[in-house]
Structure formats: C-alpha cells, structure tokens
Prior knowledge:
This protein is α/β, with parallel strands linked by helices and 216 residues long. The chain folds into two domains: 9-81, Corynebacterium glutamicum thioredoxin-dependent arsenate reductase, N-terminal domain (Helicase, Ruva Protein, domain 3); 83-216, Response regulator (Rossmann fold), CATH 3.40.50. The protein has seven helices and four strands; from the N terminus they run αααβαβααββα. Strand 1 (86-91), helix 4 (97-109) and strand 2 (114-119) form a beta-alpha-beta unit. Helix 1 packs across helix 2 (34-49) and helix 4 crosses helix 7. It starts with 10 loop residues before the first helix and ends in a 6-residue tail after the last helix. InterPro entries: Phosphatase-like_N (IPR048716), Ptyr_pPase (IPR023485), Ptyr_pPase_sf (IPR036196). It comes from Cellulomonas xylanilytica. Pfam families: LMWPc, Phosphatase-like_N.
Amino acid sequence: xxxxxxxxxxxxxxxxxxxxxxxxxxxxxxxxxxxxxxxxxxxxxxxxxxxxxxxxxxxxxxxxxxxxxxxxxxxxxxxxxxxxxxxxxxxxxxxxxxxxxxxxxxxxxxxxxxxxxxxxxxxxxxxxxxxxxxxxxxxxxxxxxxxxxxxxxxxxxxxxxxxxxxxxxxxxxxxxxxxxxxxxxxxxxxxxxxxxxxxxxxxxxxxxxxxxxxxx
Length: 216
C-alpha cells in the first residue's frame, strides 16, 4: 500500500499499515486485486485520521473497517456470500444504541448472522454508560469503535435497522428497513441506559425470530 502523503505517519505506523495491506491481500486473494485493497485501506484510514484520539491504533481501525467494506463489496458484486443474513444497525454517533444492538445480535446469534453498525456522525468513542450496562450482561463492547457507513456496506445488508438518524439514514430499494425509536443513551443516568439496553435486547430477539435464527 502507498501510504497517504498528507498524513504524518511514524515509521511504526507506516509499517503497521503496510502489514495490514499484506494481510488483506492474502485474505482477499482471487477476489480483489491489490489496487482495490489499497484504495479501500487508504480511504478507511482517512475516515479515522482526522478524529482518532489514539493515533497508534489508526492502522488497526483502518484494517478492520477496510476488511468489513471488502466483505460487503464482495457480497454486492456476487463474488462471495455464505447465505447468512446481514443486519446493519445505524444511529447518529455509532457510540451507544447501534453498538448495544450489535452486541446483543452477536451474543444471541453467534455466527448465524453477520452484524455491522455505523453512524451518520460517528463519535470519538463508545459511550461509557453503554459499555458499563452491556458489561453487566457479560457483553464487552469496549473494543468496538464509532465508524461511518459506506454505500457498499448498506447495499450488502439484508436488514437495515435505523435509530434516530432521520433523513441522514441511507435508503436503497429492495431492502428491509425498520426504525427503532429509542432514547439516546448519551448523558443518561445508568438506570435509564439499562432501560434502553433491555428494550434493545427485546427488539433484537424479535428480529432474530423473524429471520428464523434461533437465539442462544
């Protein structure tokens, strides 16, 4: 990968980005060429470079996001698809509601469903209250990170769950959409965040039932 010249990358960061490019090239060998992988990794890096609070983690965030986007593109282009339904949770900051929903989806569905999340105006970090109340249920969302959505991610989703992003939420024909009206946990007291958490879990369980997926 040719690292973006407008970023002041340390030697360690450059090495990390190049290593990420090599891993992605191996993972998607025969599916995408080096140019496509470089383009997705570079643009994913750009998504976080301007707002990352810990620059050391930028290459890792870029790699994780690029991997998700490449899987989405592969499905959209009919190059790979394992038949599992893809659910996308969207809110404003991708720091609370959508992250809790993703956590419950992964907890209850395991590998039976592919889950993604995104925000119209991604925040800088996951809401501490959301992390705390999910930890009470034995679900760790502290390692997640706010991120935007991209066209290929939305196009690859079978179900799009929106939570308060309004007109900013992307609409593509032929997809199942649901709007979940939920309070934003930002700045709420923990008891109120717990109420939101429990509501999200009930909705996720109903969603899995509608998809024919047995919840664990």
